[in-house]
Amino acid sequence: MAVSDPNTDRVWEEFHTSVNMTGEELRRWLLTDASGEDALPASGGVDAEGEQIVRLLNKRRTDVTSSDLELMERVSGFVREELSDPRPEDDAWRRRLMRVGHDPLGPGSEPIDL
């Protein structure tokens, strides 16, 4: 049995708490026009960071790399920062969060006090 790294465990848990969309849900969102023009590059694929997040959502904890951990920390920090000052009347706010896999209106999202 492999020994678990406490830092990896912490980052993994924070990331999977911050990201409440599945990899497939995120991929579909990134491919829609509703996610905004930045999410759909001219090549027709999803943006590079979005694709990395989709891949991360499909990885096992034991397979994450140090660059995965950095991205996971960045995503968790971004979601935390955006939710600390929510603007629910601003549709762009929701799209920014959804581009990294957090739907503020989806299951598992913290309630937003208006």
Characterization of this structure:
The protein is an all-alpha fold and 114 residues long. It has a domain of 72 residues. 52% of the residues lie in helices and 0% in strands. The protein is built from five helices and no strands. Helix 1 packs across helix 4 and helix 2 runs antiparallel to helix 3. The protein is globular. This is DUF3140 domain-containing protein. InterPro entries: DUF3140.
The low-confidence parts are: none
Report the end-to-end length measured between terminal Cα atoms: 47 Å
Number of helices: 5
On the 0 to 100 scale, the average pLDDT is 81
What composes the largest sheet? Answer: none
Question: What's the gyration radius in Å?
Answer: 14 Å
Kindly estimate the percentage of residues that lie in beta strands according to DSSP.
under 5%
Helix/strand/pairing category: mainly alpha
Q: Helices and strands in order, then pairings?
A:
Elements: H1 6-18, H2 23-30, H3 48-57, H4 66-84, H5 91-99
Helix pairs in contact: 1-4, 2-3
Features:
mainly alpha; 0% strand
Task: Please give a quick description of this structure.
This protein is mostly helical and 114 residues long.
